[in-house]
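Customer ticket, subject: "Can you confirm the structure for Adenosylmethionine-8-amino-7-oxononanoate aminotransferase?"

Message body: Hello, I'm evaluating your service for our small team and ran a test protein. I'd like someone to confirm that this is what the system normally returns, since I don't have a reference to compare against.
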Amino acid sequence: MIDLQLGRMSPAEAARLTEFDRSHVWHPYAPMPSAVSPELVVAASGVRLTLADGTELIDGMSSWWAAIHGYRHPALDAAVQRQLNKMSHVMFGGLTHPTAIGLAERLVTLTPAPLTKVFFTDSGSVAVEVAIKMALQYWRARGVSGRHRLLTVRGGYHGDTFADMAVCDPVNGMHHLFTDVLTKHVFAPPPPLGYDEPPSASYLDELSRLAATHADELAGIIVEPIVQGAGGMRFYAPEYLRALRDLADEHDLPLILDEIATGFGRTGQLWGCDHAEVVPDIMCVGKAMTGGYMTMAATLCTDEIATTISSGEGGALMHGPTFMGNPLAAAVASASIDLLLSRDWQDEVDRIEATLTAGLTGADELPGVADVRVLGAIGVVEAKEPVDVPAVQEIAMEHGVWLRPFGKLVYTMPPYICTDDETAHIADALYAIAESL
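Agent reply: Thanks for trying us out. I re-ran your input and got the following:
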């Protein structure tokens, strides 16, 4: 049983659940049965996770970058409860409801001006899948055949569904096992590392060459703006994003920006594309949109994309998730957006950036560290060799912090509501891990 006041579970019950989990529950990117038992969380509040034995950990991951307001926020809890008292779900085919309409109004207002059409999806991966489908169907509706490939860059990650896997890094990504069955897209080298680095003329020339060479077979360009997330946690200069926008215009290609990880302020700007002052033709949002409460995402596009698809073969975008526009998710998403805009979120993110930068000073000089980088509410320690994940997590937990490294990367994307002291704790954990490499 769980003691709700203490946030604890009896050792016997915790052991039973953990063993069942290990034997029967398949976790992401993990074998079955699991080689390492996951930590058992029984409660979460503010920026802290409570484990079965009562241990509290500062969540340095925002539950995979989504819980920007932390957990059990009164405004978000109340939004879910209000909606639950009305209806939890209704099909979106042939029906609509005020909650989804209200969320669409917020997204149209908040995103770059040309994006006026909103297609709701169940997850970020599906939002990207829909964006790719939009680009492909756009050309079919225009009566142009043979445009089945996308131009993208190495080092990217866009999700785990099949269309998404095909535009993730084909060599160093997580999906190389499926290479022989995925669409072969056009990949440029990864953008040179460094947000503040001057642009490389040779790299810009390579982007231009690839776009020109493959222009007749390209359906669009897709990238993560400024920050490449799970493909490597790499930051690149805004000039490269501007160059891609120019190439999209030059060759009449839709520019798809995957803002799933970068959107809603994570990089220090509301959208990653704001760093480069460019706007996409198609844009994917998710993760932080619901404040980490429920799964929901959206794909937005311009009038031209939507009108062209709707006037072409089929007369509609051929996609329709069962839980599209789910009222509970839409309600908490609207509340999360309102909550974000009601606070000085930019100051919160700037303070996280400053605290992480200060706390990681000197870590790049440690012998096992290849690079240290911070941008907005993102801090990254890149090791020279792949890290021992259980050992690294043990160090983090000894410092009262939850982190989830992968490959050579130990990183944090904390909730925006972290205090300076809480962020400093996260930085201390990262530094201690860097010392151990």
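A couple of notes from the result: Residues 124-141 form the longest helix (18 residues). The longest strand covers residues 115-121. Feel free to reply with more questions.
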